[in-house]
Amino acid sequence: MSEFKSGFVTIIGRPNVGKSTLMNQLIGSKIAITSNKPQTTRHKIQTVLTDEDRFQMVFVDTPGFHKAKNKLGEYMVDTIKQSIEGVDVLIWIVEPDETIGKTDTRIATELWTADIPVILVINKIDKVSEERLFEAGKNFSKLADFADVVPISAKNGTNLDELIEVLYTHLPEGPMYYDADTLTDQSERQIVAEIIREKSLHALDEEVPHGIAVGIDKMHKRDDKDLWDIEATIYCEKDSHKGIIIGKNGSMLKKIGTNARYEIEHSLDMHINLKLWVKVKKDWRNSEMLIKNFGYLGSDE
Fold it and tell me: Could you tell me where the beta strands, DSSP code E, fall in the chain?
């Protein structure tokens, strides 16, 4: 019988390379929100994959490496650095069509000062030829000696079993940190807020999503029936953005609410009555108080 191993695995990379998609696929459940817009992931999210006979892997999803332009950005960059410290294995996820740039050099510098095994995961292999995949691996391997290189397609689930086995070889022997049925450290309120933000990201124009946050005002179960009442506010930074989020005759807000309601009910297995409002909080991304109120400060400080 193989020895039981456990440990923490941080996933890092540029924005939009598939970090959250990979984590969701690994645990077989959607916990982290995804979109094709940069800075979708704003804070550290932990998920747990358990094989009761062999291992427990705690995956840590992080924001994409970027140059901070406000206090929220500074918090996100700090979150990445904190997530590298004290873990057992690092996954650096890249795309096969990327060229080596300044961001990659910055990531490499952060990784090698951590002095732990780093696995290079080349994602989206379904979109390139084997020749291009080989070139990408060769280019990134110039930055350092990786413990392993694993090509995958996070979206399609290709080679994820191989990645899990590679991770297993690099984890130490250890105990189960969480109960076997635990999937995440995120509360239901956090998950609901993130789902609403995800549906907003999918629906809104390019310039709006960076400046939105979601606050849960009320979330409780009715005594007389199997129904949860949820009230939430979408915050934006400009009056013009408020109009876009609401839409003509409330059409955009209704679309966001309908899509969010379906996802929340599916993800949390609950029937809900969802009400959404929109408020303007100008320049909230530079207000430490508001950033903390929206859940982006506090848990790691």
Answer: 5-12, 45-51, 55-61, 89-94, 118-122, 148-151, 213-221, 228-236, 272-280
Rounded to whole angstroms, how far apart are CA atoms 294 and 53? Answer: 39
Distance CA 216, CA 297 (A): 16
Does residue 52 come out as left (phi exceeding 0), alpha (psi in the -120 to 50 range) or beta? Answer: alpha
Q: What is the pLDDT of residues 92-151, one digit of tens each?
A: 999 887 677 777 877 887 777 777 899 999 999 988 888 888 888 888 888 877 999 999
Alpha-carbon distances of 178 from 86, 87, 181, 268, rounded to whole Å: 17, 16, 8, 19
Locate 241 and state its tokens. 């953005």
Token look-up 């022997």 returns: 173
* Burial (CB count within 10 angstroms: exposed 0-12, middle 13-18, buried 19+), residue 286: middle
- Would strands 228-236 and 272-280 be described as parallel, antiparallel, or unpaired? parallel
pLDDT of residue 64: 65
Residue in the structure block whose two tokens are 């310039």: 207
Please write down the long-range contacts of 102-105, taking CB distance under 8 Å and 24 or more positions apart: 103/14, 103/65, 103/66, 104/14, 104/140, 104/143, 105/143
Q: What backbone phi and psi angles, to 5 degrees, belong to 84? A: -85, -25
Q: Which two tokens stand for residue 13?
A: 């990379």
Q: Which residues on adjacent β-strands are paired with residue 274? A: 230
Are the beta carbons of 41 and 61 closer than 8 angstroms?
A: yes
Model-level pTM? 0.82
